[in-house]
Amino acid sequence: MTDREQKYKPMVHRTALLVVLLIWPLIWVGGLVTTYDAGMSVPDWPNTYGYNLLLYPYKTWLLGPFDLFIEHGHRLLGILVGLAAIGFVVASFWSEQRRWVKGLSIVTLLLVIVQGGLGGVRVLLSDRVFAMIHGSTAPVVFATAVGAAVVTGRWWQRNQGADETGSADPAVSEGGSLMPKGTLFLVFFLTLICYAQLVLGAKIRHLQPNDSPVWFLYTVWAHVVVALMIWILAFVAWYRLRKISDLALRRPGVILVGLTAIQITLGVVTWVVNYGWPSFLQWLPGTNGHLIVSKDFVDAMLVTGHVATGPLILAAAVVVGLRLLRLQFLSRHSVS
């Protein structure tokens, strides 16, 4: 069965969307674990202090130390994501006719399993390198789940290319030209840059004992330069997407620019929280340039918000990229 013959399957899309809606809070809680340096607050895995993960006393979890609360909660939320991913696979094989979507559901489940395994290895080995890898692969899982939600959604099925009269979809602009030339390449390049930025951020978050100050400085400067690149690319992508009539593309473009602006602001706040004010701003009142060693709850949430917003930018780029790819494919086939 071709995409054009495939009908919208609500259960498949809803389960894919559920996976997305659970993974992002999981990333947030995982970021909070790193912010509070609580990754080893539970020293065993897959058990929690010898208990089966699901049978750990809830009073000890809820009323115990905050480090234990967020680390054990991170594991429980991970189980929910796994169950939702299994549900996505079952729903896909039950009603989805497109084989490649069934394959995508399996890939999503496997990525969730691998991600959980990486978290377990990080605990068993007490290794910060695996913590960095675990943090770098989480956005890949999230982006894959977002892609699955896109290709199973109403918009994907509604844009079937040519209508009964053989004319192209209105979203496909004149002359078979879908968009300003190079827009699709621009968006996919932006997606790659966004992921590279997340890897740099994970490197900064999970410093190794043998990392030199010079290496750290270079990594931070690369992080800043790439952030500016993302801002420029996101703005250019939004400017180009404005010329396409379909709101399903224009709105994610606006979201992409907005999230990038928020992320840059949170990045500045994160630097101040972690390392104090830059030396050239120390003349301002209240900016003594001191190093903040401990974080209060608000500071921790701001820092973690910076971590969790990055995958949202990546996800917005994936949404735009997949929808542009879909329309370009339909444009070529409608013209031919």
The SS-based structural class is mainly alpha
Q: List the secondary-structure elements in sequence, H or E.
A: HHHHHHHHHH
List the uncertain runs: 161-177
Q: How far is the first residue's CA from the last residue's CA?
A: 20 Å
Residues in β-strands, percent = under 5%
Oligomer: single chain
Transmembrane segments: 12-36, 76-94, 106-125, 131-151, 183-200, 220-241, 253-277, 297-322
Protein name: Heme A synthase
Membrane topology: Multi-pass membrane protein
InterPro entries: COX15/CtaA_fam, COX15/CtaA_HemeA_synthase
Description of the structure:
By secondary structure, the chain is an all-alpha fold. It folds into two domains: 8-165, no CATH class; 180-335. The protein has helices at 10-35, 58-63, 66-95, 99-125, 128-151, 154-158, 183-205, 213-241, 247-275, 297-335. The longest helix is centred in the last third of the chain and has 39 residues, at 297-335. It is globular.
